[in-house]
Amino acid sequence: MNKSSIPIIFFLLLTYIFVEAQEFTIPLYNGPVPNSKNTGQAEIIEKNEIISIRNVQVPEIAVYLPARKFATGQAVIICPGGGYHILCYDYEGTDIARYFNSIGIAGIVLKYRLPIYGNTLEPHKAPLMDAQRAIRLVRSNSSAWNIDPGKIGIMGFSAGGHLASCTGTHFDYGRNDSDDPVERISCRPDFMILVYPVITFSDPVAHRGSREALLGKNADPELVKYYSSELQVQKDTPQAFLVHGDNDSVVPVSHSLLMYQALHNRKIPAELHIITEGEHGFGLAVDNDHPAAWTNNLEQWLKWLNRNRN
Asked: Smallest Cα–Cα separation from 211: which of 193, 225, 194, 192?
């Protein structure tokens, strides 16, 4: 080997190690996954126009960290959508995490269990349980990951938005009786970002596909109420940013309106953006500058949060 090439190889090796350290995946739970049963099934990953995941067996988080020099201290746990049937993993997950890195924010993609595949004991509890655990896990690692433990938010798209809103309305400040130190940490998100979210399971505007996937065809009315986030807003529900297409024919804009009104009624700061076009599932909307502008508004809102938190 030419000696002059050694420094270059060494530099490339360091670069590789650094990149690897900035993007990594870890399981949510140590040991057996709670509320689960072994069905012998395998997780299914389909790579077509988007990467979609079905039948999640081992829930995990994919952590994307920004350069320390530009890090704001904020982190966002991202819940991809997919109607509680699949996870739109890149389109509403890893692509979003990389966007956050570009503005100095840690993006953490949650691969949560889906209730329709028979691998959970109580299906409706699994997604929320995984989201709560993700917040605890990120908070427990905040120092190592250069994250402020008081600047950890939850984000979701469509049914992932429903999960994010449920995480913002159903939380605890740590289970002090747990033997697991991670479970003794608060799972309250510091803010919510809800993008064309499913909010209500209550008729007449309920998103019945998501409701049926999570609760079954003959849902218990108490569970319908429990998972209708506009009915669960309390005084300590975190502040929120919402964005929705006015012409959304899959999840009507009334879902975001209901959540905004519930937050406003409780005097919880909330920002709502309704976009004329975009329909459902526009994601980053890289093919249309009009709906794509929502990310600019989000960036300004996150900076406002940072100023008011510091």
From this structure: 225
